[in-house]
C-alpha cells in the first residue's frame, strides 16, 4: 500500500483500559505476538452498536479475566485519541482496512485480589503481566503508541 492509500483509510474504533490498583500502579502486559519487549495496557475493538464503556469492561475480562464486579470506572478521556500504525504493519492487521486506531480510554480502579487476574484466557494476548508505576509506562511502550500513552497519563495521572 502506498502512503496516500494508507492515509485515506479510516481509524478502527477502540477502547483502552488503564487498570490501576489501590497503590496507583497500572496493569501492564507483554504482548504474545511481539519478539521484543512490547508492553501495553489492555485494549480492544468496539463491536458495532456497542457503548464504549461496555466494550472496555468486556475487553478487560476477555484479556485479563478481571470481571466488571472487581472494578470501578473512575474516569474516561474527554475525547478520542488516534494513532497511526507504522506503514509496514497496516497490511498485516485488520486485513489492511484501517490506518490505525482511535481510542476512548477508561481509568478503572481494581478492587480485587491479584488472583483474579488470569491472562491465560480463551484467546490469550499476553505472555506476562505486572503492576507498573505510572512513571515507567511511556518508556515501556512501542514508539508508535507513546503519544497515546502520554495523553492518557496526562488525563488520568492526578487520579493514580
From TrEMBL:
Question: Which InterPro entries does the record cross-reference, listed alphabetically?
Answer: Nudix_hydrolase (IPR020476), NUDIX_hydrolase-like_dom_sf (IPR015797), NUDIX_hydrolase_CS (IPR020084), NUDIX_hydrolase_dom (IPR000086), RppH (IPR022927)
Nudix hydrolase domain location is 10-154
Q: Which GO terms describe its biological process?
A: nucleoside phosphate metabolic process; ribose phosphate metabolic process
Q: Which cofactor does it need?
A: Mn(2+); Mg(2+); a divalent metal cation
Signal sequence coordinates: none
Q: Where along the sequence does the record place the motif called Nudix box? A: 44-65
Q: Name one GO molecular function term.
A: bis(5'-adenosyl)-pentaphosphatase activity
Q: What is its EC number?
A: 3.6.1.-
- Coiled-coil annotation reads none
Q: Which domain of life is it from?
A: Bacteria
Provide the alphabetized UniProt keywords: Hydrolase
Q: Which Pfam families match?
A: NUDIX
Q: PANTHER family, from UniProt? A: NUDIX HYDROLASE 26, CHLOROPLASTIC, UDP/ADP-SUGAR PYROPHOSPHATASE
Family label: Belongs to the Nudix hydrolase family. RppH subfamily.
Q: What does this protein do?
A: Accelerates the degradation of transcripts by removing pyrophosphate from the 5'-end of triphosphorylated RNA, leading to a more labile monophosphorylated state that can stimulate subsequent ribonuclease cleavage.
| Name of this chain's protein | RNA pyrophosphohydrolase
Originating organism: Nereida ignava
Organism lineage: Bacteria, Pseudomonadati, Pseudomonadota, Alphaproteobacteria, Rhodobacterales
Amino acid at each position: 500500500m502506498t502512503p496516500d492509500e494508507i492515509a485515506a483509510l479510516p481509524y478502527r474504533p477502540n477502547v483502552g483500559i488503564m487498570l490501576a490498583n489501590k497503590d496507583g500502579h497500572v496493569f501492564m502486559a507483554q504482548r504474545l505476538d511481539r519478539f521484543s519487549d512490547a508492553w501495553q495496557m489492555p485494549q480492544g475493538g468496539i463491536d458495532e452498536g456497542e457503548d464504549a464503556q461496555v466494550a472496555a469492561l468486556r475487553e478487560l475480562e476477555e484479556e485479563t479475566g478481571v470481571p466488571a464486579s472487581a472494578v470501578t470506572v473512575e474516569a474516561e478521556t474527554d475525547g478520542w485519541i488516534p494513532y497511526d500504525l507504522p506503514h509496514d504493519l497496516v497490511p498485516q492487521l485488520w486485513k489492511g482496512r484501517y490506518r490505525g486506531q482511535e481510542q476512548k480510554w477508561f481509568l478503572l480502579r481494581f478492587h480485587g485480589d491479584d488472583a483474579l487476574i488470569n491472562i491465560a484466557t480463551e484467546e490469550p494476548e499476553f505472555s506476562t503481566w505486572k503492576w507498573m508505576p505510572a512513571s515507567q509506562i511511556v518508556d515501556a511502550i512501542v514508539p508508535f503508541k507513546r503519544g497515546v500513552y502520554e495523553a492518557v497519563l496526562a488525563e488520568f495521572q492526578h487520579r493514580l
